[in-house]
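Reminder to self: tokens first, then the designed residues, so the page reads top to bottom the way the pipeline ran.
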């Protein structure tokens, strides 16, 4: 069983409260997701984030393929972090931790995603050809969109890596 981890850090020149209000609102996920992904929230984004919240989406990770994705918000510490886990969707495992911490001149947003691809050896073959590229593209888009919305702290470089275990 091969596990993968995407790790992203981005500094933004905003307050912790501003960051939390934006990042913890499920409706804003559509704002920071590339349009070609066909991301649409079906239900569950109508109230502030809470543990146990179920959010249903549709997403088109590849042309001609649309799937339903159901996540549960499993942990929340207001202003500091939240965790979403896939309950149904394209991955065999999806565990996404979102952290916000204050730094000089703003905040650092950190995402750590542990995931597993379904379909055994076929999934492992598809990972470098399709999945890895798609995830990196999504997070580079997200980084750029957040920079457009909030600016950047220029002396702190953004970080994005994807590893396997």
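Designed residues (165 positions):
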């Amino acid at each position: 069983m091969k596990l993968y981890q995407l790790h992203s850090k981005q500094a933004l020149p905003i307050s912790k409260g501003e960051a939390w209000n934006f990042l913890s609102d499920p409706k804003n996920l559509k704002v920071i997701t590339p349009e070609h992904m066909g991301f649409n929230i079906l239900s569950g984004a109508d109230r502030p984030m809470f543990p146990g919240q179920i959010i249903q989406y549709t997403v088109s990770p590849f042309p001609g393929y649309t799937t339903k994705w159901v996540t549960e918000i499993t942990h929340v510490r207001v202003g500091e972090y939240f965790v979403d886990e896939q309950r149904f969707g394209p991955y065999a495992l999806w565990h996404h931790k979102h952290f916000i911490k204050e730094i000089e001149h703003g905040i650092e947003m950190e995402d750590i995603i542990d995931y597993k691809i379904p379909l055994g050896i076929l999934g492992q073959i598809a990972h470098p050809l399709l999945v890895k590229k798609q995830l990196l593209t999504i997070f580079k888009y997200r980084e750029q969109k957040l920079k457009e919305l909030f600016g950047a702290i220029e002396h702190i470089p953004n970080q994005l890596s994807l590893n396997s275990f």
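Residues 4-164 form a domain with the Alpha-D-Glucose-1,6-Bisphosphate; Chain A, domain 4 fold (CATH 3.30.530.20).
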